[in-house]
Every structure is written in structure tokens, then in C-alpha cells.
Amino acid sequence: MALFAQHHALIGRWVRVEATDRTFASGVLYCVDPASDAVVLLRRPSSEDSGGAAFGVKVFLGHSVAAIRADDEFGADSLDSIRDALCVDTGGGSAQDVDGDATQRRARLCELLTQSFVPWTDEGAAGVAVFGGAARVRAPFTRESVESANEQILARLQQLLANG
Q1: Measured between alpha carbons, how far is 116 from 133 in angstroms, rounded to an integer?
Q2: 45 cis-preceded (ω within 30 degrees of 0)
Q3: Are residue 151 and residue 93 in the same domain, yes or no?
Q4: Could you tell me if 118 and 129 are in contact, meaning their C-beta atoms sit under 8 angstroms apart?
């Protein structure tokens, strides 16, 4: 049976993922890909490899997962704390030169990104940087104003804006 079918109810909870090589990792289960069975955990990085990041991502390929178990007693992080940590406002400028409708779209975009657990940074008048700068959304904050060299990120952000 596919990992998604077995463990989709654990998404958003603290879990322990055990790999076939007998290693394991604990974190908040972000998603289980229904097609590939890839498992994605959000977890606090260790001090030596944090690089200043609030959370790290650990990906297990589906064939390497031996077990996924709920581990709510151990986990201190909640989805809300992760969501708050991923929302960074640098205060690097203002959006005064952006019209009122664009300001509302910008606020809605930031809300959608936060709800979708997508890391973003407010760059003031320059727009919103997504995924550490891998993508950028500029005024007027519409589907057409998304910029990224990565086609998958571009398509996902455009889809998020179209559906949001």
C-alpha cells in the first residue's frame, strides 16, 4: 500500500521517519507525495548546519522509508510556530508606490504563502521573494508578475495565485 494512503492523516503532526538503512529523523510531516511516496519533514536544523535557517527540510525518497510513526510527545514545534518562523519581514522598503488593489493582492499573497508553508521575505517596494529568492513576485502581484528561472516553482506559484 502506498505511503500516502497509509500516512496522510499524520500530515501536520510531529513524526519519526525510519529509513531502510536504519537511520531516522523526526520533524513535522509536511507532505507525502501521492505519486512518488516522497516524504518531506520540516525540522529544526542542528546548530552546525543551520545556516541561520529557522527550519530545515528533510526529504526521504519513497523507496527508502521503512516506517512513519506519530511522535507527538517529542515534538515541540507546531504548524503555527513553523508558519510564524517562515514568515520573515525585512522591512526593506515600503509599498507606497503600489496602488490600493495591488496592496490588497500583496497582503493576500503573503497570507496564501504563509498558509501554504512557503518561506517568503517581504522586500518592500521590490516585491516578495519566495523560497529564499528562487522566485519573486512583483507589483501588481498577479499571476503574470511571478518571476523564476525554475519552471516548477513558477508554475506552482502561478497556480497558487490563480486559485487564491
Answers
A1: 17
A2: no
A3: yes
A4: no
Range of the domain at 124: 89-163
DSSP secondary structure string, 73-119? TT----HHHHHHHHEEE------TTS-HHHHHHHHHHHHHHHHTT--
Same domain, residue pair 110 and 56: no
Walking along the chain (164 residues) 10 residues at a time, the average pLDDT comes out as: 84 90 90 87 67 73 93 65 60 50 86 85 85 86 87 86 78
Per-residue b or e along 32-71, where b marks 16 or more CB atoms closer than 10 Å to that residue's CB: beeeebbbbbbbbeeeeeeeeebbbeeebeeebbeebeeb
The answer as to whether 82 is a domain residue is no
Residues 18 and 42 in one domain: yes
pTM tops 0.70, yes or no: no
Which residues, at least 6 apart from 51, have a Cβ–Cβ distance to it below 8 Å? 45
101 with 70, same domain: the answer is no
Q: Cell for 73?
A: 510527545
Quick check: is 153 in a domain?
A: yes
Cα-to-chain-centroid distance, residue 125: 23
CA distance 118 to 101: 23
* CA gyration radius, the chain: 18
